[in-house]
Every structure is written in C-alpha cells, then in structure tokens.
Amino acid sequence: MRNVLVAALVSLIVSLLGTPFAIRFFRARGYGQLIRDDGPTTHHTKRGTPTMGGTVIIASTLLGYFAAHAVFLRGFTASGLLVIGLMTGLGAVGFLDDFIKIRKQRSLGLTATAKFGGQALVAIAFGVMATHFVNGHRLAPVSTHLSFVRDYGLDFGAVILVVWAYFMVAATSNGVNLTDGLDGLASGASCMVFGAYVIIAFWQFGNNCVNQNPVNNCYQVRDPLDVAIIAAAAMGACFGFLWWNASPARIFMGDTGSLALGGALAGIAMTTHTELLLIVLGGLYVVEAASVIVQVIAFRFFRRRVFNMAPVHHHFEIAGWNENTVIVRFWIIAGLAVAFGLGVFYAEFLSKGSLR
After folding, report:
1. CA separation for the pair 220, 207 (Å, rounded)
2. How much of the chain is in helix, strand and coil states, percent to nearest 5?
3. Is 302 exposed, middle or buried (0-12, 13-18, 19+ CB in 10 A)?
4. pTM beyond 0.85, yes or no
5. Residue 86 · residue 20 · CB < 8 Å
6. Strand partners, 145
7. Which secondary structure element, helix H or strand E, spans residue 210, and what is its range?
8. Per-residue pLDDT tens digits for 18-55
9. DSSP annotation of 152
10. Smallest Cα–Cα separation from 270: which of 116, 79, 39, 99?
11. Cα 299 to Cα 229: distance, rounded to the nearest angstrom
C-alpha cells in the first residue's frame, strides 16, 4: 500500500508545483488555446489561455510511478510498462494535434485521418504486445476474453483482441477528449475514475489467485499492484492539475492530456479485466460521447438538432446555465457513476462467497 501512496503523493506534488512553471513557459511562447467561433460566446474570453497542460499530467504520472518503484526497489512489470507506454503514446498524438493548432492558428490540428491513424498505431502496438510477456502463472498482461468485472467465456482470440484494443482506446480517449470542454470538467471526472481504479486494482491484488488457493472469487489478473500504482499516480497528477485547471482555468490540458488520460483508462481497464465496467465508471464520458453521436445522426438523417450544441455540456450553457453550475452537476454525475460502478464490482465479489 505504501508504494501506491508514494506514487499518488509524488505525482500530486509534481503536478501541483510544476503546473505554474508550465503556465509561464507556454504563455511566454504564445501557446494559447484557440476557441471555436460557433461555441458559447462566454468562452471567447478564454482565448489565449495556455494549453498543452497534459504534458504536466503525463510527466507527473511517470515520475510518481517511477518514484514508487525507486523508493521500494520494486521491479517493473509488463502490465505497468504497457499502460505507461499507451498513455505516453497517445499523449504524443495529442501533443502533435495541439502543436499544429497553435502553429497554424486554427481550431483543428491533425486531420481526422491522421489523428485516428495515430491512435490506431499506438493501440495496435499495445494490443499486440499485451498478449505476450506471459509470466510463470501463464498470465499475460491482457486476456483475450471479454470482461466485465472479470473474464467471461467469450474468447476473442489474439487477432480480434487487437481490434478490440483499438476500439477501447479510441472510444475512451475520444470520450475524455469530448468531456474536456469546460474548466476542470475532464480533470475532475478523471480524478474520480482513476481513484476507483486504485481501489479495484488494489482489491484484486489482495484477492489475487496467485496469492490465494484458486476459488471462485479470486482474480486472474497478472500485475494488479503495479496497475494500482499507475492509477494512483494518474489520480494524483489530475488532482494537482485541477488546482490550476478549475474555473477560471489558468491552463488547459489540451488533446495532449485528454488523449493520454483516456489511453491510461483503457489500458487500466484491460489489464484489470474490467473492460465493460469502464462504461459504468466512466458514465460521464459515455453521456458526452453519446450526445455527439445522437446530434450527428439526427442532423444527418433528419436535418434536426436534438441539443443546442454537442457535446451536451454546451447544450446547458447555451440554455442559460452558468458554466460552474454545469461543471459541478456533471461532476455529480461522474461521482454517481463511479460509486455505482464500485458497488457493482464489490457486489459481484460478494456474490461469489467468502475466500475463507
């Protein structure tokens, strides 16, 4: 447990103290946010706010993770390094997107093809490597079985798993990206979801089939403690960043942060065998992404708009809600989704009976 706490504390301190330096650095170089002209008019005052703050989140998470291993002289695991690599790789795709926006002074960075191509390249690399590195207990970092709270009978096979990994990464990273439209909304929600995964992964570590006689409710997960350390580091990084990202935001995470956080969540979900549970835990991301899908379908086929503007948080802004009101109420939704997801996870454990 101590290494989990060290990871969270180090990443929190680095993010909290490092973000002001990033703000000054990006502002001095004119790395400011560009605002869509068709968005809420209240957002025009945010033009020029430093962006690419996701670099701080990624750096803080990495430092927290490596510090926890250095302090307690723990060896790195395949699961941990794969999740870290996935997070960093998607962060690099987001960084390119943000940098092009700033350099060309437009609200669109990479083309849709290039952006999805970059996500696909990183996700496929993760999916291919995730079924390798089998340990002495014949466990790979990611199972080829579909999972909710644990693995089920449906076996994808190695090839379909790569496609599934891409879908998971694309859906989650874009879900977080769409949520990142108001000050602190995505970073605050991410704190909660990563916090949930600290609990889940550490619980799996305490009830792992490697440490227990195989029974119904132990977990066949390869490196749950290392995944808990990553979740704790990401949670601490998001908390520290939220201090400066809360309304009125002094810095935005940009696609650098949102894609990286989404990638980390997808990787953690797959390595903890809770892929479908992420839909519940990340309920806010699902609502935001679904609102865009509904809006696009309704307009394309019926030439009508369901919402004033999508994602749905902008709908309420245009309807007259104060931005802070939208943020806090959406945080409540995120918190309820996380609480419900943890309840489902624990209820399933209890349904299997006692370990003793």
Report:
1. 9
2. 70, 5, 30
3. exposed
4. yes
5. no
6. 155
7. none
8. 999 999 998 888 776 665 555 555 555 567 688 889 99
9. E
10. 79
11. 44
43 DSSP 8-state letter: G
Q: What's the rounded Cα separation, in Å, for the pair 76 and 70? A: 10
| Residue that is written with structure tokens 């902008």 in the block | 314
Burial of 122 (0-12, 13-18, 19+ CB in 10 A): buried
The two three-digit tokens of residue 87, written as one number = 């997070």
Looking up tokens 């245009």 gives 318
Q: Cα separation of 178 and 77, whole Å? A: 32
**Half-sphere CA count of 170, side-chain side, radius 13 A:** 17
Any residues with CB less than 8 A from the CB of 48 and at least 6 apart, and which?
32, 33
Which residue type does 225 have? L
- Contact (CB, 8 A) for 87 and 288: no
What would the two tokens of residue 252 be?
Answer: 């935005």
Comparing CA positions, the residue from 162, 220, 224, 197 lying closest to residue 280 is 197
User: Look-up: residue for tokens 């305490």?
Assistant: 206
Sequence spans of domains, the chain: 2-134+147-273
Structure tokens at 24: 């000054």
Summarize pLDDT for 187-226 with one digit per residue, the tens.
999 999 999 999 999 999 988 887 665 556 788 898 999 9
Give the pairing of strands 151-155 and 145-147.
Answer: antiparallel
The amino acid at residue 200 is: I
Encode pLDDT of 245-288 as tens digits.
Answer: 998 999 999 999 999 999 999 999 999 999 999 999 999 999 99
